[in-house]
Amino acid sequence: MAVQTSLPASRTHGENKPPVDTFHLGAIVRAHRPLAFCAAAMVVLAVLSGVGLVVDQRLVQGEPVWLKPFKFAMSFALYAITLAWMVSRVQRWRRTLWWLGTVTVAGFVLPEISAITFQAVRGVRSHFNFSTQLDSTIFAVMGGAAYLGWLMTFALGVFLVLQRRVDRSMAWAVPLGIAVSLAGMSIGYLMTAPTPDQAQAMHTAIKLATIGAHSVGGIDGGAGMPVTGWATETGDLRVAHFFGLHALQALPLFAVVLQSLARRFETLRDVTTRAGLVIVAALGYAGLTGLLLWQAQRGQSPAHPDALTLTVGAALAAAVAILAAGVVVATSRAIRR
């Protein structure tokens, strides 16, 4: 059901009936224009950055200079439109959520993407760059914006959790998605810590141009995968950061898919079954994020997992499959009784 259009969102607090889990673009825009327009702006920036990838041949540490703005713009577009969708479905604290979303756009997304794009125009690195006072200031601004973004996402999550929902599976998907996403965001802070070599140099009072890294067991700028740029010769913290961050979209989307499949599969028509499967999926997603983080911290590239990583991954997949089967069997028996 779409959000009512007769009154602004701030004046319809608690007046709508609980909406179904659909993606209604008009309702999303009306519910939170700053987030919706932010998502649209990020799509435009992604397109412009894509053009830059073609016409601008400059490289920064072996990567095309416009690759980072492109990736961050796409990620922020998903982040903003997902939050706007969640806000469009709430019944309580709509004004509070509107302000939290607006602060997220103004204090987190815009400063972060502006700094990244500005450094790309200059042809220098945006992250971990302490080459000049300007670079240090820009990175400090990005760090402050990231902290604010984490806090705003957490606050939004609290108010989103305390909502009445039509479907219990979505009631689980939203908080679990936010929780795993916050954990994924937190991995970014591990990248800002000095590497062992940098820490040793800092003890000798050497002024460093770079402090922090996303690579483990090597230096940033080595061989990387196409498009993502993830390291193929060393560990890369960005992989776990990426997967964890996008639990915010993955788990609610999984709940929506289960709702759609319930029309065809009788087993999924029971809300308890769908809720249980969402919980299992969240555990599996969190486990995968943890596995990728563990792999990176061992200095191992995601492109070349060793036998131990593959064994743990297989055990995780088996555990998820067994738990999912257990949920289906247990709820089916309960329904028959």
UniProtKB/TrEMBL annotation:
- Mind telling me which residue stretches traverse the membrane in this protein? 35-54, 66-85, 97-118, 138-162, 169-191, 239-262, 274-295, 307-330
Give the keywords, sorted.
Answer: Membrane, Transmembrane, Transmembrane helix
Q: Is this entry keyworded Iron?
A: no
Query: Is Transmembrane there in the keyword field?
Result: yes
What is the protein name for this chain? Uncharacterized protein
The domain of life for this entry's organism is: Bacteria
